[in-house]
Write a structure and sequence with these properties.
The complex is a heterodimer of chains A (about 55) and B (about 300).
Chain A lengths: L4 E3 L7 H18 L2 H9 L11
Chain B lengths: L1 H15 L5 H4 L28 H10 L1 H6 L7 H14 L2 H5 L2 H10 L15 H16 L10 H5 L2 H14 L9 H19 L3 H5 L2 H7 L7 E5 L9 H5 L20 H6 L5 E5 L2 E3 L5 E3 L11
Helix pairs in contact in B: 3-8, 7-11, 8-13, 10-11
The chains are: A mainly alpha (about 55), B mainly alpha (about 300).
Amino acid sequence: MIGKSEKTSKRVRVAPFVTILFFVIMGIFGIMTGEVRRVLEQAVQVCLSCIGIG
Amino acid sequence: MEIVRKWIQAIMALLVNGSWSFPFTRTIYQGPLKVVCSPGLNCYSCPAATTYCPIGSLQQMMAGIRIALENGQNFFGFYVVGTMGVLGGAFGRLICGWACPFGLIQELLHKIPSKKFSIPQKLNYLKYGFLLFFVILLPLTVVDDFGYGELWFCKYVCPAGTLEAGLPMLMLQPGLSRTIGIVFFNKMTILVGFILWSILASRPFCRTTCPLGAFYAFFKKLKLVKLRLIEENCTKCEECHAVCPMGVKFNESPEDAECISCLKCMDKACKFNAISLEIAGLPVGRNAGVRRRPGTKQSNAVM
């Protein structure tokens, strides 16, 4: 039972969805410019100097 | 809930470090999954890493902008920042508490019995400096003769990279030990320093140095999943202060940038249903935003 209590008001916050949509669009723009291939090229190489070796 | 969180941390650590063929290949995973962003800080030069590190990739993008533009490629890091932003917008620093392998390592180190110390709040701001200077400005502006910058945070600071990539690569390829120098010893010192600090204080790297945590902290008000304080239920007993691994005084600053949503305050400390989890403003979970009427003393309303 819900005694001397009440449920909080259920108001959906829109800001998180707008934020996520903004970054989704940014990510899609990055995909369209071919950045994914660039990220993959860099991530599959061992960059020794990047980890303090060499 | 704490056990569930530990399991999720372990599963996430295994997922982003899921390639276990390195003892045979003696190098890193080079498959297509490396276009997927690791939500937490996880060096992509780690032999087992299956995803890319957002901080490493962002520095690569900044360091290579001039050359990319000269070659007619408009690579500004939109894909990397877009992915980080989606994760930040959805979860914010909840990722630090639930999905970061280096966060898990620090938590385990902190379980080693010793005298424990707090971390001065002012040191929390250092990580924003690391994000601005070591991840963005220095790789972008300090360039060599060819116009290519360095990965300042990875090369000179990141203890996660030393632990997850530097040391394993030295073990896999012992010949590399001939090439190590002062930069590596500097990074080893930083790693040892953070290991010792993690034993003595809770999550020192996350709180003072992590640029990814700093980036996610910008979403403290905007993130989809967050903790909510139900002020009517709060008795200001300050139990939530004692359990927080990030030193957050939740009842005083419920939207604190340091909150990693580990739920310890809600689950372990608060006995008055004053803290609940919400998704996009809608209360979820056990407390589900139940609040007592003003003027009543009864707090545990749902029975």
